[in-house]
């Protein structure tokens, strides 16, 4: 039964990743506003995904271990563009695109660069969640932040814990991300509740 369960977890994770940012995107487009969302958080998240994806590609990991990353990154890029668009900072999109494009190539110029980046990857991704949390605490308003998107992120981290037993470093990463995703989800729901009672 264990292989069957793992297959199911894999499939549901891919399904969730395929639509993970759509509730967030829908909320931003519906409100034509990105209040409650931190651009810094999204940029850090993208950086973390970029490093993780580059590492897996560089070391020839099997495709199924990182297939969801390009899908999530594409959604993140669209979301980032919408946030910049609604906050009147569209011109910065090209600047960010050039930086990430350059980083993709720079990461594998030397083996030690990609190894170091991978070691820092968990810190980068954790920082992205903490920046979003800080933004929520400062504004005390979840705005268009989607609890469903963050909840789905927590689910994908939990599922990765079941399917990733290979590397301690990667395992630690998913435990930290799981805790932080749940924290952000809870914070969004908390501020949504307080807003309704005001």
From TrEMBL:
InterPro entries noted in UniProt: MannP-dilichol_defect-1, PQ-loop_rpt
Transmembrane regions listed in the UniProt entry: 12-29, 36-57, 69-86, 93-113, 170-191
Superkingdom as given in the UniProt entry: Eukaryota
The keyword Transmembrane is annotated on this UniProt entry: yes
CC annotations in GO: membrane
Membrane topology according to the record: Multi-pass membrane protein
Compartments where located: Membrane
Keywords from the UniProt entry: Membrane, Transmembrane, Transmembrane helix
PANTHER family named in the record: MANNOSE-P-DOLICHOL UTILIZATION DEFECT 1 LEC35 -RELATED (PTHR12226), SOLUTE CARRIER FAMILY 66 MEMBER 3 (PTHR12226:SF3)
Name of the featured protein: PQLC3 protein
